[in-house]
Structures are given as C-alpha cells and as structure tokens.
Amino acid sequence: MSIAENIKSYNQKLDGTDCKLVAVSKTKPNELLQEAYDAGQRIFGENKVQELVEKSETLPKDIQWHMIGHLQRNKVKYIAPFVSLIHSIDSPRLLKEVQKRATQNERIIDVLLQVFIAEEETKFGFDKEELTSFLSSDEFKEMTNVRVIGVMGMATNTSDQNQVRKEFASLKSLFEELKSSFNALDNVALSEISMGMSGDYQIAVEEGSTMIRVGSAIFGARNYGTM
Ligand SMILES: *Cc1c(COP(=O)(O)O)cnc(C)c1O
C-alpha cells in the first residue's frame, strides 16, 4: 500500500476511538512526509533533534511536531520555539531544562512523562515511585511554563502479547492514579496516554491509548545505513 493509503487505513481503524495517529517519520525524506501530509496527516514524530528542526523548516507550517525519542538537555533549546509535544521527558533535570527554554520563548510546552513499563533494562523513563515524588515536589509546582498532559510508555519488544497487554494496562492504571492525585495542579492536565507502535498498536488501543506512534507500518522499514 502507498503511504497515503496507509494513513487513510489507520485513520479508519481509529475512527470512533479517542486515539490519534502520530506518524513516526524518523530517517524518512521530506517527500514521504509530504505524501502523508497530502493524505491529511498533521502530527509527525521524530526522535532526533537536528532532523526534527530541519524537517520543520521545509515542510508545511501547520504540522504538529512531536519529539518522541530520548532528548538530551543541551538540545532542548533547538526545539523549544516550535515543538508541539515532547513525549520523552524521562528525568526532573530534563523537564527543568524544558521549563527554562519554554520561559525564554514565552510559551508553555506540553509534555508527556515517559514511564518505564518494560522488562528490558535499557529503556528510559521514570518508575512509578519517582514519578509520584517528583510530581509532589515544590520544584515541579514551580515549573509554570510546562504542562504535563500525559504519560508515554514502550512495551517490551516480545511476541508475548499477554506481556505487552499487561504493560500497557499498567500504564493506563498509573495514568488514572496520577490523574486523581495531581490533576488539580496548574501545570497538570492529564488527557493523553502515548503507547503503541507498528507491532503492538492494536493492543495499545484496546488498553486505552490516546496516541499511537506508528513508523514502519506507514513509511516502510527504516534503513539506517543510508542516512
Ligand atoms: C521509532 C519509534 C516508534 C515507531 O516505531 P515503529 O515500530 O516503526 O512503528 C515509536 N516510538 C518511538 C519512541 C520510536 O523511537
């Protein structure tokens, strides 16, 4: 299927749910993003700051750019003027930097807190206890130029669907807990659960995802060798 057909087919699948499609376009050339755009796609996800900035400079201005990959603190300044949502806040120090750069740009930046839900050791993110204590802190309350609108998680890369389902369900229940404890704060407005990728988005949607991040199933396999 073409990229346009893929975009349409995902939108049909999500029709009637509360879930949005983030088209993950990392490593793909602008022409392919433009094809998706022409098919109606407006939310694009990238995982490298430089690539995100370059694409945002040439592609249509009404695209909402989401940063989905691990973000280094020294690169926040490059995306702070325009990024629509950062999915990958994985430490208080990173959020503090986002707060600083958002203030300089006189804007409020929406973010998701990345939560560690997988069995693998390598994934970035907060665990539940860290998250609760951070959101309870005075340091966080003073971050008035960021708005925490949800959580993001990546399931274990496994063919065991029950495992994946369990991990997504745990993120959903954490989201509900955070909502009841912290939604009254001025810089918290929890509405989004970013979970699900090409291989596991169906389970994610069943477990309450509001944003699926789909790359290869839309744009084809990535070839890092030619980048
Ligand atoms: C690359 C990436 C995706 C998309 O992965 P696919 O398997 O190609 O759909 C989703 N989320 C994050 C954080 C990624 O880095």
From TrEMBL:
<comment type="similarity">
    <text>Belongs to the pyridoxal phosphate-binding protein YggS/PROSC family.</text>
</comment>
<dbReference type="GO" id="GO:0030170">
    <property type="term" value="F:pyridoxal phosphate binding"/>
</dbReference>
<keyword id="KW-0663">Pyridoxal phosphate</keyword>
<dbReference type="InterPro" id="IPR001608">
    <property type="entry name" value="Ala_racemase_N"/>
</dbReference>
<comment type="function">
    <text>Pyridoxal 5'-phosphate (PLP)-binding protein, which is involved in PLP homeostasis.</text>
</comment>
<protein>
    <recommendedName>
        <fullName>Pyridoxal phosphate homeostasis protein</fullName>
    </recommendedName>
</protein>
<feature type="domain" description="Alanine racemase N-terminal">
    <location>
        <begin position="3"/>
        <end position="222"/>
    </location>
</feature>
<dbReference type="InterPro" id="IPR011078">
    <property type="entry name" value="PyrdxlP_homeostasis"/>
</dbReference>
<dbReference type="InterPro" id="IPR029066">
    <property type="entry name" value="PLP-binding_barrel"/>
</dbReference>
<dbReference type="Pfam" id="PF01168">
    <property type="entry name" value="Ala_racemase_N"/>
</dbReference>
<feature type="modified residue" description="N6-(pyridoxal phosphate)lysine">
    <location>
        <position position="26"/>
    </location>
</feature>
